[in-house]
Structure formats: C-alpha cells, structure tokens
Amino acid sequence: MHVGIKKTATRDLFLCKFGVEMPIENGKQGFISVERAQHAAAKCANLAAKNILARAKPVVVIPP
C-alpha cells in the first residue's frame, strides 16, 4: 500500500510504502497469520500518523 502525504504549504508529496507480505513467527506467540500481522502493522501506522499529525500546526494558505 502506498500512502501519499502532502505538505500543505509547499504542496510537496511524499509517498510512504506500507505492507506486510509474509507470515511471522516468534517464540512467545508462535505463528502470526498474515491478517493478524497486517492488522498490527495498520494499527501501528495509524498510531504513528495520529501522533505526528497531532503535533502539526495548521497552515493557512493564502491564494495568489
């Protein structure tokens, strides 16, 4: 999944690639399905975005 983030003041676009493509296994939890790994990755990405966007200051763009 590619997510575009646009900086309002400059209109610069940054693309971030997110994805979980293979099952994961660890000693504590054992096998983790792709669906569960995708859910955990999405949850982390949403939390990170929320933390970053919460600190952002609104920008007012005055058209030319």
Describe this structure as you would to a colleague:
With 64 residues, the chain is of the alpha+beta class. The chain has a domain at 23-57. It is 34% helix and 25% strand. It has one helix spanning 34-55; strands at 2-6, 13-17, 24-26, 30-32. The radius of gyration is 17 Å and the shape is elongated.
Give a quick precis of the structure:
With about 60 residues, the protein is an alpha+beta fold.
Shape, please?
elongated
How does the helix and strand content classify structurally?
alpha+beta
**Beta-strand content estimate:** 25-35%
Read across the widest sheet, the strand sequence of neighbours is 1-2
* Separation of the first and last Cα atoms: 35 Å
Q: How many β strands by DSSP?
A: 4
The overall pLDDT, averaged over residues, is 80
Count of runs of 4 or more consecutive helical residues: 1
SSE layout and pairing:
Blueprint: E1 2-6, E2 13-17, E3 24-26, E4 30-32, H1 34-55
Antiparallel strand pairs: 1-2, 3-4
Question: Tags for this entry?
Answer:
alpha+beta, about 60 residues, elongated, two-stranded antiparallel sheet, 4 strands, about 25% strand, two-stranded antiparallel ribbon
